[in-house]
Amino acid sequence: MADQAVETLSLFDDVSRGRASYGAGPLEAMTTSEIEAMNAVDPFDSARRMTAQICLSLAQNIDAGNRKGRAIANEANQLALLLDQLRGDTTDTDPDESIPADVRALFDLGSVPVPHDPAEVRDAQEP
Known about the structure:
There is one protein chain. Helix content is 56%, strand content 0%. The protein has five helices and no strands. It has helices at 2-8, 26-41, 46-68, 73-87, 101-110.
């Protein structure tokens, strides 16, 4: 019964209620279009609907941040991750696996601890 109720709900009921009267920003409009296209291909269950609402809220915040000249990198990254999650593009791989071996070797060179000889420590009172 609950699943039938979810299917009859509009995807974005009352989302504009808290928005200023400026209308949808460019990222919000593109995000809405993308989410509606994904929902048309594979209808969302309630969990994916919640994720879609969060995506829309993030897009609204990014548009507002852009209008005010604020940094939006964190929100943009989170939006991209959530959209990937809605698409089913998430992978459970270790992020280090995507780094080529030669690049990883460079990182390892920078993180090798330098041996420290306690005898090299000098007393601050000695010249």
